[in-house]
Design goal:
Layout (H helix, E strand, L loop, with lengths): L46 H13 L3 H11 L11 H10 L6 H8 L8 H13 L4 H8 L3 H30 L16
Length: about 190
């Protein structure tokens, strides 16, 4: 009996300023692929055009890069990454808080990719936990060494406060708090 495995597809995130992914897009008209660009800009009532655009996007090897580019650039027109304007609208409002750990890992590996605020915080936390030097964090996030050091201080403080809060919550639930003295804690009066 032979076993077959499906190859895992590696997510390739766009580097900052990288538009080479567009060359691989199915919507890119070529001599051998005469796609009408207007297909991707249907009116709200053009259900046939919407279905056609989504079918083409479903075949596209760079649909995720296209969607990311549309969200990161605030592009609200047309079908991008297989989603219509209306379908992307909630994603546009939440893009700032997107947290994709593969993007965080790629950044820590030295790739120059666009990060959301949540992903930048995750990079700082991961770098802090893995003892990444301040100057390397500064290069990864394209900030000054002083700013990177400030982010590390804020991270250290947040971790310390979180531990204190967790210890206090644990003590409150188990009754082991040092602040709670019972009537027998002082012994008996003489």
């Amino acid at each position: 009996m032979t076993s077959t495995t499906t190859p895992t597809t590696l997510v390739r995130h766009r580097s900052l300023g990288d538009h080479t992914w567009q060359d691989q897009a199915v919507c890119n008209p070529t001599e051998y692929n005469p796609v009408d660009p207007e297909t991707f800009f249907p009116g709200p009532e053009d259900t046939d055009k919407i279905a056609t655009a989504k079918a083409l996007c479903a075949q596209c090897p760079v649909a995720r890069a296209c969607l990311d580019a549309a969200l990161e650039a605030g592009d609200t027109h047309g079908v991008r990454g297989g989603l219509t304007e209306e379908e992307r609208e909630p994603l546009h409002t939440r893009i700032v808080e997107r947290l994709d750990h593969s993007r965080v890992n790629d950044t820590l590996a030295g790739r120059d990719i666009h990060l959301t605020k949540a992903e930048r915080r995750a990079v700082v936390l991961a770098a802090y936990r893995h003892d990444v030097p301040v100057d390397r964090l500064a290069r990864l996030l394209k900030i000054s060494d002083e700013h990177a050091l400030k982010l590390y201080r804020e991270t250290r403080r947040a971790i310390r406060h979180r531990r204190i809060a967790e210890d206090a919550a644990r003590a409150a639930t188990t009754g082991d708090s040092a602040d709670q003295l019972g009537r027998h804690a002082f012994g008996t009066a003489a």
